[in-house]
């Protein structure tokens, strides 16, 4: 292998040209497999669908340290044509993990490093499917990384923790009883139930010291005519909270508010979470402190950015499903503008070198 073949900027450029949606990362995983084989590693494919795993073994006993990169792009419609674009920087993460692998080969003394190229983060299903395939079974420590927009941290800096929030959406089915609008007492209106439920949700009080939000984002209770009381409807709510206990408390209150508000007008409500509940970040604070020290040591004191947050990440299912795993997750300031998930997203790929350098030291502190 030559240094140039594992240049993070070059690999990011190549991966940027092959954006693929979640669970369809065929070209990307082939690219990853070929690179890993060039390094003399023995990649396993089909993890959680299109995911790839490879190990770099030490000679002495020690922990299994997993570094995870996501691989999928996002769907857009441009000029009336559907397309996929790497607008969340997962091409950068895949390139960083490959560059990291090249640096680690031959330098792992104890335990082993598990390189995990995860499918379908954007669908928030990739981590769960991979866990079902046993990706966590042998893991003691898990590291992750994400490029950050300029609004979060300056280009060229790195933060020791991205404090992702918990998020979910609720689908509420409403079942009432139809009747003539001239005889409303013979029916139960889902419109009234939806209005009462919305007001009940908006009247929920939570600790003002915590960050949380619950918004009704859709109400669909259309009757078939202006003089018919509608008997079925649907509501959607978007809910976010800074930590997992706050989310649990809020969802308990929301469910109670909706079920009781609907019942008040004789409507039956059922509440579902079709996308699951994405957990908030729960890092090992010892590892986070160690990471902050590493960023200063490797890049300089002025390159340690403040922790940033916002958005969801399916990485946090790891601790939920295997609480003994210790995790840390860096944010790499890469001048992302105008922002993540924008089809015109651009960034400074040179800054990915900072992410690789910090991850290398994080891993070697465990297994070097
Ligand atoms: Zn994203
Ligand atoms: Zn992302």
UniProtKB/TrEMBL annotation:
Keywords: Hydrolase, Manganese, Metal-binding. The Mn(2+) ion enhances activity. It comes from the Bacteria. GO terms for molecular function: hydrolase activity; metal ion binding. Pfam families: M20_dimer (PF07687), Peptidase_M20 (PF01546). Mn(2+) binds at residues 88, 90, 122, 146, 341. Residues 167-262 form the Peptidase M20 dimerisation domain. Its cofactor is Mn(2+). Coiled coil: none annotated. PANTHER family: AMIDOHYDROLASE AMHX (PTHR11014:SF122), PEPTIDASE M20 FAMILY MEMBER (PTHR11014). This is Amidohydrolase. The lineage of its organism: Bacteria, Pseudomonadati, Pseudomonadota, Betaproteobacteria, Burkholderiales.
């Amino acid at each position: 292998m030559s240094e140039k073949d594992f240049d993070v900027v070059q690999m990011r450029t190549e991966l940027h040209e092959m954006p693929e949606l979640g669970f369809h990362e065929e070209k990307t995983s082939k690219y990853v497999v070929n690179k890993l084989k060039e390094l003399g590693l023995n990649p396993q494919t089909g993890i959680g669908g299109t995911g790839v795993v490879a190990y770099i073994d030490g000679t002495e006993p020690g922990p299994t340290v997993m570094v995870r990169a996501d691989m999928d792009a996002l769907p857009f419609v441009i000029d009336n044509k559907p397309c996929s674009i790497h607008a969340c920087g997962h091409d950068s993460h895949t390139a960083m993990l490959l560059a990291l692998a090249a640096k680690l080969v031959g330098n792992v003394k104890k335990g082993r490093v598990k390189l995990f190229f995860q499918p379908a983060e954007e669908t928030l299903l990739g981590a769960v499917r991979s866990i079902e395939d046993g990706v966590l079974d042998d893991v003691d420590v898990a590291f992750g990384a994400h490029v950050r927009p300029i609004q979060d941290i300056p280009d060229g800096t790195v933060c020791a923790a991205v404090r992702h929030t918990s998020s979910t959406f609720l689908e509420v089915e409403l079942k009432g009883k139809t009747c003539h609008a001239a005889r409303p007492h013979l029916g139960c209106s889902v419109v009234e139930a939806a209005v009462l439920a919305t007001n009940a949700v908006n009247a929920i009080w939570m600790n003002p010291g915590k960050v949380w939000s619950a918004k009704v984002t859709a109400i669909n209770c259309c009757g078939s005519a202006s003089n018919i009381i509608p008997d079925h409807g649907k509501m959607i709510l978007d809910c976010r909270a800074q930590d997992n206990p706050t989310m649990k408390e809020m969802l308990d209150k929301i469910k109670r508010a909706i079920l009781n508000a609907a019942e008040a007008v004789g409507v039956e409500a059922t509440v579902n979470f079709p996308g699951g509940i994405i957990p908030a970040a729960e890092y090992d604070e010892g590892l986070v402190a160690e990471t902050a020290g590493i960023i200063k040591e490797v890049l300089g004191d002025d390159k340690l950015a403040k922790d940033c947050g916002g958005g969801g990440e399916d990485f946090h299912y790891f601790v939920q499903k295997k609480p003994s795993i210790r995790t840390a997750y860096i944010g790499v300031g890469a001048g992302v503008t105008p922002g993540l998930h924008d089809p015109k997203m651009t960034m400074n790929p040179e800054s990915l070198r900072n992410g690789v350098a910090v991850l290398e030291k994080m891993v070697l502190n465990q297994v070097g």
